[in-house]
Amino acid sequence: MGEELEKWYKDFLERVIEKIRKGQELTNSETQIVANYMANTQLRDHVVYLVNKLTELNANLERRLMDRLVEVERRLMDRLVEVERNLRDEIRKTREELLANDEKIRQELLKRIEGLEVRISASDMKIQEVDSKVEATRNDLHNTKADLERKIQEVDSKVEATRSDLGLVAEEVYISNFINRLVRENQAILNIYRKYETEHGEVDAIVETNEKIYVLEVKMRAEPKDVDVLLLKTKAILQERQDKGVIPVLTGSKINRIVRNYAKGLNVMIS
């Protein structure tokens, strides 16, 4: 049942996005469902959080592995140098004893020297083996890092695509809500212009009623500068249409108190 519901939502959103791109109006039920879907922004925030967390874990893992690898190499080399130094000191002492003793003792000492040389050779082999393991560990770490970077890029691409689609849907929802508000206020909708170009940039929508012309901008995170830009676009449209009153309207999901007060002080409607 869960998979069927998920497929239904996916197909539904694709149809809505296609209607928006074609400039078609959404039905009231489509607008309501999309509005409810947009309310759950925690999913997008959670995906972004997972991406950031994955990047942080990758950096911490790489740093810890490299620090550990360097420490192991340092300790191993110090130990091997110490062992080799001790062995060579023992050889030197043994040779000195050999010169001071008779032939029998010299033979015994030579055997000891041979044994020590075998141990040195074995130590050299161990050093080579450790070097091979260190190189293999570095290769594994490099491959792991490459895999993590590839997965992060895939997640980033999916998040960006989702953010773009959600932006289109959100814009359509807020424009539709504002139009419904005008209808409830008994204003007759004469024309709706999408993506209207002005000398100061593109306007999300212009809604012309029998009474007024509304210049509508949708912002997910509004800032005071967005109010200033909206006023410039409104002024440009006012020069084109002087037959009706032109009202700037700012709408969106996150319009904080500072932006609201700033907008109201400049006679900008907040929806």
Question: Helices, strands, pairings?
Answer:
Elements: H1 2-21, H2 28-39, H3 42-100, H4 103-184, E1 189-198, E2 201-209, E3 212-218, H5 224-240, E4 245-251, H6 257-265, E5 269-270
Parallel strand pairs: 3-4, 4-5
Antiparallel strand pairs: 1-2, 2-3
Features of the shown structure:
alpha/beta; 271 residues; rod-shaped; 5-stranded mixed sheet
Report on this structure:
The chain has 271 residues and is an alpha/beta fold. The chain contains six helices and five strands, in the order H-H-H-H-E-E-E-H-E-H-E. A five-stranded mixed β-sheet has the order 1-2-3-4-5, sandwiched between helices. Helix 5 links the parallel strand 3 and strand 4. The radius of gyration is 37 Å and the shape is rod-shaped. The mean pLDDT is 83.
Order of helices and strands: HHHHEEEHEHE
- Strand order of the main beta sheet, please? 1-2-3-4-5
Stretches where pLDDT is under 50 for at least 5 consecutive residues are none
Specify the helix fraction band. Answer: over 70%
The total beta strand count reads 5
Largest sheet: 5 strands, mixed
Helix count from the secondary structure assignment: 6
Cα-based radius of gyration, to the nearest Å: 37 Å
Mean pLDDT, as a whole number?
Answer: 83
Q: SS-based structural class?
A: alpha/beta
Q: How much of the sequence is in beta strands?
A: 5-15%
N/C terminus separation:
38 Å
Shape: rod-shaped
